[in-house]
Amino acid sequence: MNLSCKIFHWTDEIIHPKTLNNSQITNDDLLKLENGFLKQLKQDADLVFYSGNFSRKRTLAQVRQMIVMSNTIYGYLFRLSPTWKRKTCPPQLRQTYLHFLFAIEKIIGKAEQIIPELYIEIPLTNYGLSLRKMQIREAVKKLSIALNHLAIDKRLYELVIRDFYLFIGKKEITRYEYDYTINLIKEIVSSNVANTFGLIKMLYQHGFNPKGFFSYYANELDKKLIGISDLHDQLQIVISEQDIFFGLPESNQKMFISQLPIEDQFKIFLSQKERHLKETINIRRALNLEEQGSKQKNRLKIFLSVPQLSLLIRLFIEKGLLPKENIGELFAFFASHFSTPQTSLISAESLRKKSTDVEFSTAQKLKSHIIGMLNWLNENYNLSNFKGS
């Protein structure tokens, strides 16, 4: 027997408002009608859900039909709403429809116990949704008041409240989504979350995955990184964020089943950010090495230490062999055109500083070099016996 054959005949014909919106119908007639409908509903439900030839696929289809039936009866209530005021229909009719709706809700609830997937996949009936939306609205109001008293970034506060109200406005909501939303709001209201980052962590841990929430986190991190010039410091911040979020227990929940889990959104974003920074650092390092190599090719290697070279330049200046004007440019020239065995790229500032901040060992070593040069001159040009030597 197909559920749609018998009970839907009741819905479309026997309990249709055009049949029952009649002042001649008594309360006893409605009571008999109600008992007959509920008996037929139970028989069909037992046959579909609890019989020996149970089929998961067929049960899913029949539950969806029941939801359609419930929504149809719920529509009858709204169609008749003007007549309640004019009192042109039996006073018990409204109550009769509500009894029908309540009975269908109970059967759908039992079906969910047989097939747990229904809890996630099947939307609430319009009757069930109307009751639960009022409860969610009340919960969101409490959440709004609670967050207003905390040190939460206004943009995050507005985003979270907006997402909950957008959720309320959905045409279809599953029982899972309703339970998730109510429980999350209760967790936030009762928690000790003290600041923006604490709220972000809590939402993350509870699988809060609207696109706006991820975009908020990504934009805030980007702003933070833009304010840091050093790429290694940026990379360290990204790694720290990974340590924080990847170290949290993974949630088996998410607000919207059809959307990517927030854990995956964060992991993809932070991993891409880490990879991009590492690639940029490597590229810059390669460019620097290439630039250094280019500079090294045009430098003359002198076999002195940087302090000894600095002192030698100072000696040339003090003895009038080099000009005293534009000393900064002079040291910059030597730094740009000379290298030492230990230092391929010499800093002009360091070179100039070491020329006045001289250690005794440096002066002693340079003196030894100068004496060696004088001895070479004496030996090669016969100057040892010359009066001016």
Count of DSSP strands: 2
Radius of gyration (Å):
42 Å
Distance between the termini: 128 Å
Q: Which overall shape is indicated by the principal axes computed on the Cα atoms?
A: rod-shaped
Widest beta sheet: strand line-up: 1-2
Bin the helical content.
over 70%
Count of individual helical segments: 17
**What composes the largest sheet?**
2 strands, parallel
Give the class from helix and strand content and strand pairing.
mainly alpha
Strand content: under 5%
Overall number of structural domains: 3
Q: What are the segments in which pLDDT stays under 50 over at least 5 consecutive residues?
A: none
Look at the structure and give the mean pLDDT.
85
Order of helices and strands: HHHHHHHHHHHHHEHHEHH
Features:
mainly alpha, 3 domains, single chain, 389 residues
Concise structural overview:
This protein is mainly α and 389 residues long. The chain folds into 3 domains: 120 residues, no CATH class; 155 residues, no CATH class; 60 residues, no CATH class. It is built from 17 helices and 2 strands.
Describe this structure in words.
A two-stranded parallel sheet has the order 1-2. The mean pLDDT is 85. The chain has 3 domains: 3-122, no CATH class; 129-283, no CATH class; 300-359, no CATH class. It is rod-shaped, with a radius of gyration of 42 Å. The longest helix is centred in the C-terminal third of the chain and has 36 residues, at 262-297. Helix content is 73%, strand content 1%. It is built from 17 helices and 2 strands. Helix 14 (306-318) packs across helix 16 (348-356). The chain has helices at 3-14, 17-20, 27-49, 56-86, 93-114, 117-121, 126-148, 154-168, 175-190, 196-205, 211-226, 231-246, 262-297, 306-318, 327-337, 348-356, 360-381, and strands spanning 300-301, 338-339. The protein is mostly helical.
